Amino acid sequence: MNNRVLLIIDVQNEYLDGCLPIVDSSISLPLIHQSIRIANAHQIPVVVVQHVSEVGEIEPSAFVPDSHEVEVEKIVQLLPHNLLIQKHKPSCFHNTPLESFLMDIGCDTVVIAGYMTHMCCDTTAREAFHKGYQVEFLKDATGTVNLTTPLGTIDGRSLHETVLKVQSSMFSNVLSVDEWEKTL
To answer: Is pTM, for the whole model, over 0.90?
Structure first.
């Protein structure tokens, strides 16, 4: 039997009504809420992760401390959770108490939900895999943005699906929220 922890990564106003709108958040957000309710019903600890910009970051207009946009989404705030951690980099492990918490409770499986699929969710899943954790990646309780970089543009749906395929190739067991619930 797995000793899981559900990570709710960066479900913040920045992605809902801020400068980085998640594609199809009207679909993923209720499923994020559902994943928390399922975890609570099965006594799976829930860790809410909040990204906060540091002085000197590339995009200081996003995740500004003490702003509306940096706040965790209201329902996620209200649903029971065991720990709230702040991070400043894509990995939920980097300079946070996450790994200590996981070790203290004997966690062997990290469950990924939240935003953005291609950045913080992917980075955290890979690092968890490298640290020896099993990873379950909730494909419908994650999401990302339309992305433009110096190399080009990709729409959020394609980016999300590509990351899920890469995750399922080695790092994670990629499941829908309903599929995940059936494994509990």
So the answer is: yes
